[in-house]
Amino acid sequence: MTNLRQGVAVLAGAVGLLAATMVVPASASASVPAATGQALGALAPSCPDNWFCFYDGTNWVTRGRLSDCGWQNLANWGWQNRIESTYNNTDDWVWYEDVATGNGWWDAPRTYYASVPYPNTADWVYREC
Ligand SMILES: [Ca+2]
Asked: 96 with 16: CB under 8 angstroms?
């Protein structure tokens, strides 16, 4: 319970910081497709428009983000084998892959995973643009 509270506090702080320092479209939450079946509550993801974001925890706690097209090695930023949730806030498809097994998952445009199919495995990411 303590961890959950801390996570909520961290996320709330991050969201507050974002709101104070950059324009976060008010429609960002509304644009998350309902197809995932996820209800958006206090732990809704935050990710700037035209970036794809990944998180070192389920439910979008502790964020990293990238925006370049093509392949990128997550190890370059210390993000390999860490990603547990994602939010793709771009109009492009994004693929996360574990190099050792070939396992991975696609993030469709403007969609998110509160918990990815292969947590803590992805080493590389590919934005298709
Ligand atoms: Ca891996």
From this structure: no
